[in-house]
Design brief:
CATH topology of the largest domain: Rossmann fold
Number of helices: 13
Radius of gyration: 27 Å
Largest sheet: 9 strands, mixed
Structural class: alpha/beta
CATH superfamily of the largest domain: HUPs
Mean pLDDT: 95
Bound molecules: adenosine-5'-triphosphate, magnesium ion
Number of strands: 15
Strand content: 15-25%
Shape: elongated
Distance between the termini: 28 Å
CATH class of the largest domain: Alpha Beta
Order of helices and strands: EHEEHEHEHEEEEEHEHEHHEHEHHHHE
Amino acid sequence: MKKNLYLVRCGEVALKGMNRPYFERILLERLKNALSCYEEVDAHWKNGLMLVRVDASIPTMEVVKNCSKVFGIASVSPAVEAPKDIDAIGAAAANFMQRIIDEEGVKTFKVRGKRVDKNFPVQSPDIGKYVGAAVLKGCKVLSVDVHNPDVELFVDVRHEGAYIFRDKIKGFGGLPLGTNGRGMILMSGGIDSPVAAFMMAKRGMTIEAVHFHSYPYTSPRAQKKVEDLLEVLAGYMGTIKMHCVNLLPIQEQIVQNCPEDETTLLVRRFMMRIAEQIAIKNNNMMLITGEDLGQVASQTAEALVVTDAVVKMPVMRPLIAMDKIDIMDMAKDIGTYDISIQPYEDCCTVFLPKHPVTKPKLANIEASESALDVEALVAAAVEAEEIVVVKPR
Ligand code: ATP
Ligand code: MG
């Protein structure tokens, strides 16, 4: 089987000291898993670079896309290999450029040579010159433009071989999945929480989700939307377990027994308690939310303090200091945005107070809550949870 070569670079994994072999091993496993849909993939580390070979009949950009979805990967380059001989490298580079000319009709180029193997007899700037001359000879339509070339051709001469490539297609970076604990995302159908889950997973955290609904006030379609979002996320982080909890009995109790302007905050405190209990039961060590300072009434500094007061578990809020516009851009990059903006109601919008408190006092909120049997309500909600297992699309 003829195979194409891809150079895959890791980001932060390269900065690891003693633990580097561990991270490299996991990253390689994750990459192989992401490419397991292809036959006879060959992938291994060589001096800090991953060399990946995949059946040449698979479209290059499809392979690149699958590689760059793996957390821990900084960039990917489709490449060709040449013997470590400057004439052979020149010939391979000319062939490589000819293919680009045929496909894209480019006119100018520049070569950037790098000699990683100091035993190679030609120094970095001269690699550029030699190879540039060979390409000019082989591809008559081309001329050199060092300032603004159509194609910048990279030639890396390393210990294990010489590689020629053009693009460095960026991955998401981060750390390999499964190297940084387990977290429970509170997942609504909105724009923010999928991005928050993605950001923590990108740092290596294994993610599980809890979703609250108010059935029959919220429709099954609203929950399906959350499943659709998780399906996109599962494309990056593998199968995700989702816990679904009906919050309606608790919301009704709150509406009947507590001040109207505190409704949202009281509901949020219940969400946190229930999420914590489910997280403990499933060996998750942190809660994650898509909260963003000041975005809505329940996300003022005061409201967040009051929300946090009911749980012992650390609450991660990776979006806390981001602007909404940047969160939206991230959601578009990840592929969740178009699903998030579909108009289905969230349980938070059921019983929404007209004028929610924005600067709540903990003592007042606790006094309001004393009208409720908090423990029993939480236990009943946890008991009635339903589990949905969401697989990648
Ligand atoms: P999002 O876009 O994530 O829905 P939002 O701006 O709508 O965020 P809120 O509705 O106040 O903000 O929710 C803040 C956070 O609370 C969400 O990011 C999510 O982590 C959690 N949350 C809200 N609604 C739910 C829900 N129905 N189920 C689980 N978690 C929820
Ligand atoms: Mg929301």
